[in-house]
Amino acid sequence: MPQAIASPGPPPLRPFGLVLHHDGSWTHEGAPISNLRLRAAFDRSVRFLPAEGVYVVQLRRFRGQIEVEEAGFFVRSFDGASGRISLSDRSEEPLAPESLHVSARDGAFLCLVKRDLIASGLLARFGHAAQAQLLAAVEESGGQIWLRLADRVLPLPEL
Q1: Which of 88, 99, 109, 146 is buried most, with the most CB atoms less than 10 Å from its CB?
Q2: How many other β-carbons are positioned within 10 Å of the β-carbon of residue 15?
Q3: Per residue in 53-65, pLDDT tens?
Q4: Cα dist. 137→80, 101, 133, 147 in Å?
Q5: φ/ψ of residue 43, rounded to 5
Q6: Do 151 and 77 belong together in one domain?
Q7: Contact by Cβ (8 Å): 109, 131
Q8: With contact defined as beta carbons under 8 Å apart, do 75 and 125 qualify?
Q9: What is the bridge-based pairing of β-strands 54-59 and 46-49?
Q10: Is residue 73 pLDDT above 90, yes or no?
């Protein structure tokens, strides 16, 4: 009977105990990761693999599946003049205001990002500073709440 030949390529992805929590903190097998440089490296290295439907951290040649509590990405800043958001993985993209909604956990703003990667989008959670920047671009007029983005004024979805 012929022997099975091992398939080339990386081993299958499996969780290895790394969790990205809703507040942006990281734990490994339940222990908090307190090293600031390591946490920042993890933040920058989060990727979503559409074919597998999983989040991973990728540090150089290492790639490991992570558990994501709420959102895989975090909005670090919002620029009302351009309508762009900066994300925790160091990418930038236009804010999709129609995707804004509130976290059921604690009221933080969430939006959808990475629609070029996956059509339905992936959740990104606003950090405190980014949420304050967004709220600074909100106006009320005629009983409606509006968001000023660059030279446009758009109605905000009910939050």
Answers
A1: 88
A2: 13
A3: 999 998 888 889 9
A4: 6, 16, 7, 6
A5: -55, -45
A6: yes
A7: yes
A8: yes
A9: antiparallel
A10: yes
Domain boundary among 68, 87, 104: 68
Same domain assignment for residues 31 and 77: no
Q: What is the CATH number of the domain that holds 41?
A: 3.10.540.10
Binned at pLDDT 50, 70 and 90, residue 13 comes out as confident
Write down the mean pLDDT value for the chain. 90
Q: What are 129-158's pLDDT values in tens digits?
A: 999 999 999 998 888 888 988 788 888 877
The token pair that represents 92 in the structure block: 């930038």
Domain that holds residue 130: 73-155
Q: Is residue 36 part of a domain?
A: yes
% of the chain beyond a pLDDT of 70: 92
Strands of 84-87's sheet, edge to edge? 92-94, 84-87, 73-79, 122-126, 109-113, 101-102
Which of 7, 42, 68 terminates a domain? The answer is: 68
pLDDT in tens, 75-122: 999 999 999 999 999 999 999 999 999 999 999 999 999 999 999 999
Whether the Cβ atoms of residue 122 and residue 131 lie closer than 8 Å to each other: no
